[in-house]
Amino acid sequence: LVNGELRKWEGSTTPVISTISSTEEYAPTTLGSIPDMGEPEAFEALDAALGAYDQGQGVWPTMKVKDRIECMLAFVKRMEQKREEVVKLLMWEIGKSEPDSYKEFDRTVEYIYDTIEDYKQLDRDSAKFQKHDGVYAHIRRGPLGVVLCLGPYNYPLNETFALLIPAIIMGNTTIFKPAKHGVLLITPLLEAFRSSFPKGVVNILFGRGRAVAAPIMKTGKVDVLALIGNSKSANALQEQHPKSNRLRLVLGLEAKNPAIVLPDADLDLTINECISGTLSFNGQRCTALKVVYVHEDIKDEFLKRFSEKVDSLKFGNPWEKGVNLTPLPEPDKPAYIQELLDDAQIKGAKIKNKKGGKHFDNYIWPAVLYPVTKDMRVYEEEQFGPVIPVLSFSDIEEPLNDMAESNYGQQVSLFGKDVYTLSPLIDSLANLVCRVNLNSSCQRGPDVYPFTGRKDSAQSTLSVHDALRSFSIRTFVAFKDN
Ligand code: G3H
Fold this sequence. Notes:
This protein has 15 helices and 22 strands. By secondary structure, the chain is of the alpha/beta class. The strands form six sheets. It has a seven-stranded mixed β-sheet, sandwiched between helices. It has a six-stranded mixed β-sheet with strand order 7-6-5-8-9-21, sandwiched between helices. A three-stranded antiparallel β-sheet has the order 3-4-22. The radius of gyration is 24 Å and the shape is globular. The relative contact order is 0.13. The site of glyceraldehyde-3-phosphate has 9 residues, from loops. InterPro entries: Ald_DH/histidinol_DH, Ald_DH_C, Ald_DH_CS_CYS, Ald_DH_N, Aldehyde_DH_dom, Aldehyde_DH_Superfamily. Belongs to the aldehyde dehydrogenase family. It holds the Pfam family Aldedh. It comes from Flagellimonas iocasae.
């Protein structure tokens, strides 16, 4: 989708392959193919976005708020008609379970309606005058320019739209490249984008990041890099920009969120929350619990009950009833998971659950590893998959020091009962991460709450409310009371 046109592609293509087998005999399934776009298409998209923005004087940034809202409403209504198609592709392309695929779609639609409401409020607020020391001001929010947007494979619809929608509604123009996995599901929505927004406001490119995103960055004409994914891609793109100090970054990156289980924790609740925290969507969430610290006094009981529970989960294809675990969409992920398990076992950890690590192609049983030590790769790396490193501690300073030394700082889950212990601990943890979850697993939502991180985990803040601010700048008119 470039400059309001859905282009026909006649060049080479790359097949989109699902790791889910469509036959009894295991074989990956080819779902379709995507165009291998390159520099010419990238530059056309950039020109279209620059044209529609036209240094802030273009049709989109100057459009009346109510008209921009009309466009967004038209889009979301058209999008809603594609629910079944998108959900089916979510299941096939990334292996997300059927209930979670519907949840991703519905959450995205709700996010768009909430964004529209919040934008209306922002507009009402900006109509008010302020007066300080005899100076009146009429403060409003304006767009930043051209936004290059790249989303992740684990929420290819929801998290990408959590960037794209606020960027668009604030009056920016956009170029969007879908993730490698979860790319076909954007195609049913192309026509909705085309027919809802003026030409050049939303441009969608297919192909590899290196082939389309990097050349766009090199021109120095991008104002905002909005990316949810890994820091390697974010850094590589940022470095391409010749004036990267001018670039606004809206980034959601890696995290290594810990669970800290205190000796008085309610174990039933803790185990349930740690199961969903570590293994929802097979652990492929930036908010997943990626390391579990259990107090020495309760570690044996925790490990026994937690491991049994992991082994009792149900494996299957995304559309099967009651499945908890599904195949991983990245073909090379099993080999990576195996490397982590081998490395940890060589250095002294054991797989505590009977089924742990067993795999059949991309269907991998989660492995509970204990005792994990700091020299192991699984302690350091964001596994983003079904491996659960467990460490025990006798002094709370141990997990606190580890968190202070970590490169990440998104969230933590704290399990315990005694308020006199919890209260000061919450204060300490809040200075290390951005969200402390008390007796509950880490998560991004509800989407009205700020979603961000310290250190290498994020730049800027997302949420219905904050994203509008992340994609805009405050400008104002001032005059004196003469
Ligand atoms: O992958 C990172 C996502 O922000 C996780 O979102 O906590 O709603 O699953 P979630």
